[in-house]
Amino acid sequence: MIDIVFGDAEAGVLRCFYASQGIFDLDRRVCKLEGCGCLFRGPIGGSFDDPRRREVMVELYSDEEPESRERALERWEGYLRRFRDCLAAAKAGEPVRIWYSNEPHSLCGFHEVIFNLFPLGADIRAVKLPEWSPTEEGKRLLGWGAVEPEDIPAYLPLEVSLSPAQQGTIAGEWERLRQENGPLQAQVNGRLVSVPEDFYLPFIRREVPEGPFRVCDLIVRVLNFHLGIGDGIVYDGIRAMIESGELEAVETAGRPYWTVVKRGPNFPGQG
After folding, report:
1. How many helices and strands, by DSSP H and E, does the chain display?
2. Alpha helix (H) ranges present in 119-199?
3. Of 109, 200, 226, 255, which one has the greatest count of Cβ atoms within 10 A?
4. For residue 271, pLDDT beyond 70
């Protein structure tokens, strides 16, 4: 069995759980496909190893440090190797289990993996994160990274086997989105849909305070909406607002997230 996840936190949870069970072939057992998780941002129309996707992933995992691009490229190469190994194992008949949630990056990864495995006649199982914790009453779950490793056994009964017909339907939904090839993919009412680049701007605008503030503080306020997006998408929206005059820089900093900004002349309702 190969377990597929789409981010560092989810991979860490499963690896800790398996290590506690005396299972140590973790690099092979837990297959982290963060490149699939990057597909919430376009383009998504090419193959899983499309160079255009490489640039998206590198941008998402890079920062202002010169060495970060090299590290991001290494992540891309690791992702390609893991994905190819996973495809080969599934083609040889080894079962694959996908751990996913309603977060956009996770839904994109779920669809992309099934899209690639469906033609192989693969044995695909899936465990979807429930809305509420089965081990802690009243705790709402937002992502697999928030689950304690020792609680994994409580989620295993949620595993379902996806029939060829179900796999075909999911692959077809992803093909439709691939044809649209939108700039962003978002979860709307439980479904993955293509949305415009400014889709999250209303959530950013409503959190812009009066007076000067740091970019990082606004990012945190928006992330508290639990939209299932990362800081990079919010920062892109803030940059777009600065370019349009909705926000203006008051004090620049060596690190972009620490730049101080305020409402600009084009901010809605300003003036």
Report:
1. 10, 10
2. 164-180
3. 109
4. no
